[in-house]
Amino acid sequence: MGFLDAILGRTKLPKADEDRLFALGSAVIGLQASADLVPSGRSAIIFKGLPAGRFDQELANLRDLLKLHGEGTGLAAEEYKDPLGYEWVILSGDQSGYADALAAIHTVAISLIEDGLGDMLLACVFRFDQKGRAVYWIYGYKQASWYPFVPVGPRQRDNAEELRLSGLGKNEGLPVEADLGRWYALWGLPV
Q1: Could you give the domains of the chain?
Q2: Range 77-97 average pLDDT
Q3: 24 with 146: CB under 8 angstroms?
């Protein structure tokens, strides 16, 4: 990263490491058993708004990629723009452990990286249900690591449960973000 990039706040994504992203697929079974987390079948990839002029083309490409990937998997995709202007591609239908959703999200991310828009990638989110409440595992592309997010009310989160889940996730082979300051709260998740 150069001096100008640092001043302008640009960051480079870590080298693509599919093992870090796909670690959730193998950890799901252990998390179900140890933390009562049940896959909800909902996930999403989040990115900054794409530059003007490329927005329509990129979204059309993303739709085509997901349509191709979703054939036979039962995955459905929808777009959402949150109040802060971030774009979400929300996937639903994969309650079998997230293998298909992980592959679709990876396809979307690689497409953006190959088109020179990798710095627009923010995170992907996977929702689980735990005894009547939503629990999320979030993968941050900038750090290439996972962290749990357990909202319990308006702008409140269950920090103790998040710490417990992070330990269980590490035991299951998830690369959990070590810096708790990077466990960003994503309030009002549409997933």
Answers
A1: 17-179 (3.30.70.120)
A2: 83
A3: yes
